[in-house]
Amino acid sequence: MADDSAALEERVLKVVSESFQIPFKNVNRQTSKLTVGPAWDSFATLNLATALEEALGISFTVDEIAELVSVEAILEVIERKGTA
Prior knowledge:
Layout: H1 2-20, H2 33-36, H3 42-56, H4 62-66, H5 71-80
């Protein structure tokens, strides 16, 4: 299970890195709207949600999309969905 969790986290980090054009090595669980800055606006959140859905084969509700404010929060939402 730990391997699955680590693999999931790496996939999420990769999507966040690509979505915001941040070097992968600079993305971690603490990466958030605050650390990314204005580039992580509501439109970017929708694009991120779509990219995560495509990469992970899941779907987010509108309420879940509103929670996608950091890598940590993304992982928590996915865990609650039982996808981790």
